[in-house]
Amino acid sequence: MLTAQKIWSPTNLKEAWEIQNHIGIGEYCLVSGGTWLRTQWEANLREMSTNLISLEKIAEMQEVTEQLAFGKREIVIGAQVTLANCIESELMQTYLPSLVKACRRIAAPSIRNQATIGGNIYTAAGDTIPVFLIYEAKLRWFNGQTIETEPLEQWLITLQANQFKRDNRMLVGLTIEVEAQDDFSFFIKVGRRETFTASLVTVAGKGTVDNNGLFGSVLLAAGGGPVPARLSATELATCNRSGSTELFKSIYKSITTEFEATTDAFASAEYKKTVVANLLVSELFDRWEKNHLGGVTNVAGS
Ligand SMILES: Cc1cc2nc3c(=O)[nH]c(=O)nc-3n(C[C@H](O)[C@H](O)[C@H](O)COP(=O)(O)OP(=O)(O)OC[C@H]3O[C@@H](n4cnc5c(N)ncnc54)[C@H](O)[C@@H]3O)c2cc1C
């Protein structure tokens, strides 16, 4: 039997909300770039809804802006901003180079022209999420009345606890505070081949290293588990500690204990834990060596 497809194109959040309510939960699907949805529909992993609500005409979801809130600089990224827009954005290149790197490592240019930040986050599996976690991004949701904010980390934890059941809020975008000056930030993706491939694991980190080799404000996150997650215990074990063989060994151990990896068709949880620990420790060691006295220190002797 043929089913008529209806495509809705609201031009603002209120209108989109009204359409949602009019159709009713379970009877519609929000579409941003549609790149993730397309793979789900084509692989028969999800049925195509008869009502597709396209978000592409909602102006307030399209921009990347900079604002001062309580004296702090924030970057506000609309959910409809594409991965290609992120790569080109001067604001992102200046304040969020790791995010630009993450976007560059997602799919091919043709996909990145359509794929959005909102869609990438909402899947709870997108490769940009570890970067947003280390920047302690706050999600902006429209609940029909107002815009409410929620830390991304909190949303991911709740989502997992609720068996990935989502409510009907619309993701408007996210905000990131960028005032603090970091000495380093990084993003690394490991896939099954070099380019245009889904990730096995992703890691992101940022922080400072002073002249005495002391780590400060270290934030770490990894993807490759049920949801991407911060590695808070490892962050705690790293901050205010000087680089040494013992420290790097203990960071490695802490990561393999803390990181909850999942086994999939291509890699075991144990393998992913080892890769994540290797990536993060070697990256921290590298940054420590470069920043600490210009990179002339021998770790064994420090
Ligand atoms: C060939 C190919 C390669 C890919 N490679 C990668 C990769 O390497 N890394 C990676 O992370 N992803 C990859 N993807 C997946 C996908 O392209 C990205 O995750 C993309 O960012 C999703 O954004 P989108 O706008 O297309 O989302 P959509 O497909 O439009 O939506 C994704 C989900 O989010 C919901 N949604 C979208 N916007 C909102 C909103 N504002 N509020 C509430 N719900 C919303 C939708 O209903 C849907 O459930 C790939 C896809 C393809 C086709």
TrEMBL record:
Keyword Flavoprotein: yes
Superkingdom to which the source organism belongs: Bacteria
PROSITE patterns the record matches: FAD_PCMH (PS51387)
SUPFAM superfamilies: CO dehydrogenase flavoprotein C-terminal domain-like, FAD-binding/transporter-associated domain-like
Key words of the record: FAD, Flavoprotein, Oxidoreductase
Alphabetized Pfam families for the sequence: CO_deh_flav_C, FAD_binding_5
Domain FAD-binding PCMH-type: 1-181
Descriptive protein name: FAD binding domain-containing protein
Record organism: Halalkalibacter kiskunsagensis
